[in-house]
């Protein structure tokens, strides 16, 4: 009898495991606090009715050229103020994501988001561009604006103005901050002296952050789109999925062409309807860094590229014949 019970126990345990995995599997909507699509309105699409208390920005084109599908901040007084609710000031872990295109690299004009606006100290969590043009994810202890009252992770990579980026910041714990650009985690370094964080201010702000109690707050100058905010940490695979859900691969070109497969994992093939026998193919990453260059080849080995979105350019005699995008992924 004991043997029979043990034999039954194994499949039951396996069944319970699969049931629990199904029940606790998460989607991108799980623990989502805010989702501003900015498609001609400022409504919250998370289902939590967290519409902005104040919306002062202009609707504009998004990264695909769609009208009234992103917001533009003038760098002077434009901002979005979130509701001042306790649930919008979560403990760690938490995640923030959005698209940005900066008009300038001036740090004072590149404060993207804080979940706790306060005039007299670093508090809560915020994302901004540092003075070295690196993305910075930080939290503050609410004591002062000194270096010792914040803890920051900066990305190693420098960003450019007038370029769309998909930004994600995840804080898992006080010493585990992660920055993602275009769906890929970027290496970086830590600095600052805070070892805990505190909420002491008012509702969160998109487009405004104070950094000195003797001067006026800083305001963002540029474009922002598809803002989301979770009270949980998103995994690498979820962030990659989110990026590919929001990016649009542009397959248009100035010549008849096909690029396949797209996304590509190992080899990217080009079919070009051009008369030139001599041509150069250049592949750059989304921030413009040269990754590959080849001549007169219609098959490109992309297996060593990191996952992400790339720009491919075909030229002849310094004349650009084609410029389009492709996605590198791992099967």
CATH topology of the largest domain: Jelly Rolls
Order of helices and strands: HEEEEEEEEEEEEEEEEEEHEEEEEEE
Summarize model confidence as the mean pLDDT.
Answer: 87
* Strand segment tally: 25
Summed up, the domain count is: 2
> How many helical elements?
2
Taking all Cα atoms into account, the compactness measure Rg is: 23 Å
- The share of residues in helices is 10-25%
Q: How far is it from the N-terminal to the C-terminal residue, by CA?
A: 48 Å
Secondary-structure-based class equals mainly beta
Regarding CATH, which class of the largest domain?
Mainly Beta
Low-confidence stretches: 1-24, 249-254
CATH architecture of the largest domain: Sandwich
Q: What percentage of amino acids are in beta strands?
A: 35-45%
What spatial form do the alpha-carbon principal axes imply? elongated
Biggest sheet, open or closed, and with what strands and sense? 8 strands, antiparallel
Overview of the structural elements:
With about 325 residues, this protein is mainly beta. The protein folds into 2 domains: about 30-245, Jelly Rolls, CATH 2.60.120; about 255-330, Immunoglobulin-like. It has helices at about 1-25, 235-245, and strands spanning about 30-35, 55, 60, 70-75, 80, 95-100, 110-115, 125-130, 135-140, 150-160, 165-175, 175-180, 185, 190, 205, 210, 220, 220-230, 255-260, 265-270, 280-285, 290-295, 300, 310-315, 320-330. Strands 1, 3, 4, 6, 11, 12, 13 and 18 form an 8-stranded antiparallel β-sheet that branches. Strands 2-5-15-7-8-9-10-14 form an 8-stranded antiparallel β-sheet, with no helix packed on it. It has a 4-stranded antiparallel β-sheet with strand order 22-21-24-25, with no helix packed on it. Strand 21 and strand 22 (about 290-295) form a beta hairpin. It starts with a helix and ends with a strand. Mean pLDDT is about 85; it is low at about 1-25 and about 250-255.
